[in-house]
Amino acid sequence: MILAQLPRFHLSILAKPSFALSSSHFNFLNPKPSVEVARTLFSFTSKSNLATVEPIPLSVSDSSDLDDAPVEISLDKLFIPPETDISGEDSTSLTARILKGSNIVLSKYARDAQVVQADYVKSSVKTEDCPADGLPEFALVGRSNVGKSSLLNSLVRRKRLALTSKKPGKTQCINHFRINDKWYLVDLPGYGYASAPHELKQDWNKFTKDYFLNRSTLVSVFLLVDASIPVKQIDLEYASWLGQNQVPMTLIFTKCDKRKKKKNGGKKPEENIKEFQDLIQGFFETTPPWIMTSSVTNQGRDEILLHMAQLRNYWLKH
Predict the structure, then answer these.
(1) Largest CA distance in the chain
(2) What gap in Å lies between CA 223 and CA 250, rounded to an integer?
(3) In what order do the strands lie in the sheet with 174-179?
(4) Which residues form the EngB-type G domain (predicted)?
(5) 81 and 27 in contact (C-beta within 8 Å)?
């Protein structure tokens, strides 16, 4: 797959000699203070070797931003999926296994990632009204106007599967879209829209949180954060709530194509992303998985689908 031109994400791995390379160290669901882990999807001890994974080719165009300073990721900041052992990997081979623009290592479960078919199924206002066929699902949630519907459309390569609106806060239900007749993408109401009536915002918060806590087929929440603007407190609070309630989470940084000029006082997306990650260190013992995206250039589309695939296939096996 050839993606549109996008900024090259430079990556170098910083080894920490005292760090034990076991996936059990990467339990990002365990916030401070430590609590018993209710969901065990990402808390298994590594057993298999990463070298057994077949390489998955993803082609990315070159960019004029090649002089940007490399983004350095230390080993303890990587997300290593369960049953993935990197102890025998050198820096070069490990870097090749990390999804571009992310901290996620590919595992043997990263297969069947392509979206062939996508269909709207239903909208629900109660968790118990959601589809009951037992298929695994991934929920997209984020602040209003973060680009959630645009990202969903980009993932399925359909311009109007999820309707986008100039007015934030239009998504008011739990919207299920069935993918390949095998799993679901779920579009949830955005949060933080100031113009929404207080009663409506309370209803959104109530049924969204009930969905997070009680939906047994929920594999992971993908929390969307706008990387083109400074960190918002409401995003930090939402991430903290998910962690404290043991809800599996991946951070999706949107609008990474917007390159603010330094002379205008703006920060690059990479700078805003680093600031967000530094701030959530107080919420989590380890760094959650994250991916840089743009619905304009399709940056991160393939990486999200591969990440969803390896989580989904592991969930189905266990």
Answers:
(1) 55
(2) 6
(3) 118-124, 174-179, 183-187, 137-142, 218-226, 249-254, 290-292
(4) 134-314
(5) no
- Domain edges within the chain: 101-317
**pLDDT tens for each residue of 36-58:** 333 444 433 323 333 333 333 33
Backbone torsions φ then ψ of 191, nearest 5 degrees: -115, 160
CA-to-CA separations, 140 to 119, 157, 225, in angstroms, rounded:
16, 16, 11
Q: Is the dihedral of CA 125, 128, 129, 130 positive or negative?
A: positive
CATH architecture of 101-317: 3-Layer(aba) Sandwich (3.40)
Tens digit of each residue's pLDDT (9 = 90 or more) over 182-191: 999 999 988 8
List residues bridging with 224 in a β-sheet: 142, 252
Distance CA 256, CA 268 (A): 8
d(CA 200, CA 207): 11
Mean pLDDT over residues 5-26, rounded?
37
